[in-house]
Amino acid sequence: MACPHPFHAAGGPAAAASFGNDGDWTDLLEQMTDTGGDSVLFGIRHHSPACARAVVQAAEHLCPRAVAVEMPSDLADYVTWLVHPDTRAPVAVAAATDGGAGGFYPFADFSPELAICRWAHANRVPVEFIDLPVGLRHAVDTDPDASAASTDAGKQSTSCAAAGFSSLIGQEAWDTSVEAPSVGCTWQQIRRAALAVGIAARYAETHDGTPADAVTRAREAWMARRLQQLTGTSATPSSAGPVLVVVGAYHCAALVPGGCGDTAPGREEELFSLVPQPVTVSVVRYSFERLDTRSGYASGIRDPHYHQELLTRIAAAGDDQKAQAAAAQEVAGDILTDIARGLRKEGEPAGTGEVAEAFRFARDLAQLRGLPAPGRREILDAATTVMAQSQVTGRGRLVARAVAAAMAGDRVGDLPADCPVAELQKHTRGQLAALSLPSTEQQPRASKKIAPFSGPTDLKRHLILARLKALDVPYWEGGSGTTRGMDNRSYTIDCRFTPMTAAELDRHAAAGVTLEQAADTVLVSRLNRAAGSPEGPDPEVVTGIVDRAAACAAPQALSQAIDLLEQEIAVQLGFRAAVSAMQVLAGIAGGRQPAAACLPEQLLQRCDRMVDELARTVVGAIDGVKGSAKIADARLLGTLAGLSGRLGLAVGHALADVIATGSALMAGAACAVDSLLEERDAPAFEDRADTTGTGSPSGTGAGGHGVQTGRWDALCTRTGALVDRLAVAETRVAARDWLTGFLAALGPVWSDHPGLDGLIARVSGISDGAFIAALPGLRAVFDTVAPGERERFLDRLAQDIGRIDQPEIAPEILIATATADQEAKKRLEALGLLDLSFDPSTRWRLVLGADPEQLSGTGWQMAETLDELYGGTGDDRTGEAQGRVRAAGSGPGSLAVRRWKNQIEVLFGPDRVDDILGVAAERGRADAALELNAETARPSVGLLTTLLNLKGALPESTVARIRPLIARVVDELARALATTMRPALTGIGSARRSLRPAGRLDLPATIRKNLSHVVSIDGRVQIVPVNPVFCTPVKQSSEWHIIVAVDVSGSMEASTVYAAMTAAILSAVDCLRVELFTFDTDIIDMTGTVDDPLATLLEIKVGGGTDIAKAMAYALSRVTVPAKTMVVLVTDFEESGSAHRLVGTIREMTERGITTIGCAALDDTGLAAHNAGVAQLCAGAGMHTASLSPLALGRWIAQVVNR
């Protein structure tokens, strides 16, 4: 059986045209395939079962006196461990120099180099490694465009892909030209086909066949010189046999006389005159999982388990062609069976019938292609066609996962017991010892202060610790910490070398021989896994890799992560992810990352340019969070003040929009950022809309104070007015949220911000009654900031209103003062002036939760009552607190709930009981929810979500006690929403206007029709309905199908409530057929309870991830009449699945005529927070996207149905 024509099979007409004609090809190929000289070339591809089998057959036929292999010559001593009887492939050789050059060489049983080395060892034939030493890589002037050629001595130059001929030398072309036809072929036929592929690839790169990059040219010059040394100048074979040269097929043309190597004179002499640097080498265990190209290793091979099985069974079949073909067919059948088994594990039907049909398809396809047996390509085509039914998404993705599991395999290599310890561990121990850090298990735990900016030693310590962290090696604890919100330039760690440290280093031994190399390799691998995820790359994962790569000074990983960020992720980033990525990259470009000093300048410039690109994304994404109710978003908005130099003038307009139209929380945050940026003058503050109802600031500092003074006066007036708003029930929540956002955005500097002067003055000046009413809200506001920051605020208050610490006073003086206070209290009570009993220091102790032991009487009782909700040991994220302030708490209280309820009622009034208990319930106190009054509790979405969250954490007997309250809240909210929405839905597709008396009168249409018939009767203008208009019922030929998909991930609580009630209202419209389903990463159909919002909400469990693409695919499967179908997607567009798959599904819906609308969450304000980047991608695919209230959604549905 003969292989296909080597020229056209390998390169085709295009490749031949680059070289000349078939005659030219034949001349060079005949020269290369000649076996009569003193050396015989055998061109291979790294990891080729056909070549691994054929090269051993060639050696047995030729009986060479020596074998020359394309491996760095300074690794020759380690061939002993590769061919050791106890070595079980896959294994790998990792090498690196102190200068950073290195290489990584994995081997499997089907690697031709390993196969020929094993044969040579068994037959006592010397093996020579003839490639450029790793220790000389530093001497090569690497072409900037040859990306990773200097760090990977893979058998094909990495510049090949950059030059555009990877399609000729890549695995798919190699499978087609060499592997698949090789079954039953002789070693001569396989060798000839492989050499033809090498020639075609070489001349497809450059016209004269000279490699484009410097590393490949240097390697080929070195190999030619070494080969000349081995063979001498004789053209006749030695009596002891030829030298068998096993090198990449691409390089063979450079190793024949008159070939196409580097003709630069003296290049090899220059290289041979240099002394190689010392090389650290390690032989490590490897695995098929890592060898598979899906792991990100570019020089690996796709589906190694399949190639292993093929090599093993064909070798067992011997030289008989029919037996080899039968063995290959047997492998195909077993692989297809394994794929079906994997599908069944995924819950997909795939049985004997599918396997038999897929096998028949693969066998017939092989016959049509002239192949002796199905190859890898035929197996994949059969699985795609028969098992996936050619689907790219859905079942197609499940088949892809099953194929990967069946064909990649999970085999792990092993090494002899006496193999040297992995060099990674030895290198790491040496580096730690040199830096005076614990390097052995016997050394005690050490505490070290690391100041990476202070000098090279601490910078090296910082780098080695960062690299250990990147590899998840347990060695040290601690961190940089912050001071007033700024990262410290030094930090203290506790470190110790433990057996777990050694074990984890050994686990990563296959990644490299130095920590630098291993960290870079592992980060690149993680990045490639993220990029190859079926759901698409996760922005948080990629941003995290950028941060870690910069901390480790890992340029390859950082460069590839920035590529991925720029090409695939930036367009779908939401506000949170975009700001996070911008902060990380700005820290690298600005030198705040210590390891940035070790990165190439070109890479730092890329980071700087990427910051500018992300700045535009950030400004555009601000609109997506302006309706947010999350303090984290307010804090994140505050970070823009530090990035203002990159954001440009556009950020000012975006902040103005948030102040005018955003939620109270985000409006306060935007106002804080605005004040920090100092981009607006005082009148701008006054003219903006007051979303909290605080009233416009009244003072602008006129009278010579200037614009800056006027700005602060206006801001102080606003913050002071908010204290009064906190005392009023109608404005309490908005005022609290505004102040919370204001403090959150200011960050650690809030305690010194002059805008709080008005609040300080107002807290000190209002009456006791107003202060008590405002106190719970004030405590809630300051509860959101760290205890250490509140302590700094106490220091500021000491300057503004005097010391509030308890003074050291003699007991007899205190007794006399207390007696005088009691007498004064009686007189003030008689005069009606008892308001003055709460002095400023007492008020601020209550507001800040400070020094409760210094309070007495009513003040102490109020502090105890509020501490039950807000006090606790807490978590000081700054590490700066001294214990003077109680931190926020979320655990069980110290008071019995009924006693606490009574204290709230006595101290703050009956109207505050439900408010405070409701907040306690939100913080997880179920006993507080049980005390809420079902008759008097104020219905709200916040209360309802709190109660619904508790139902999963309480026994059914306890839940039964709050069901009446849940039912009442749902009923009242639904009734109020229906009152708002039903007018917008009136008349949807249910009637047409007619002058014929029938049905009911259409009053608006009648008035418009008869405006010409106006008369005056008794002085009153009246319309005479000469032509009344009636609504005639219309029988629907087909009703509209409304599919409501509701995201129930953790961020969608309020929207879930509104969506359930909206769906119930829509289901009451006669001409609408409504389906409702919820989704996170799973889908639950709720259509059965769509008309009962209470039943729906009691069944919904909020929490989990988000797979919007999966939900839209399910919605598409429910469509029967596309032109009469509307899909309403309620989500915040925070997609954790594949954004590309989501966009593709929406585009398919649009093309089929389905109406789609994406509600960027759904609430009564129409300002819900969402990912603006993903929403814009969906809008580009044809979906109408907007932040909507239920009323606006109802109007939109009515317009679509009636158009």
TrEMBL record:
Source taxon at top rank: Bacteria
Coiled coil: none
Compositionally biased residues, Gly residues: 696-707
Segments for region (Disordered): 687-707
Pfam families: DUF5682, VWA_CoxE
SUPFAM superfamilies: vWA-like (SSF53300)
Protein name stated in the entry: VWA domain-containing protein
The species this protein was found in: Corynebacterium mendelii
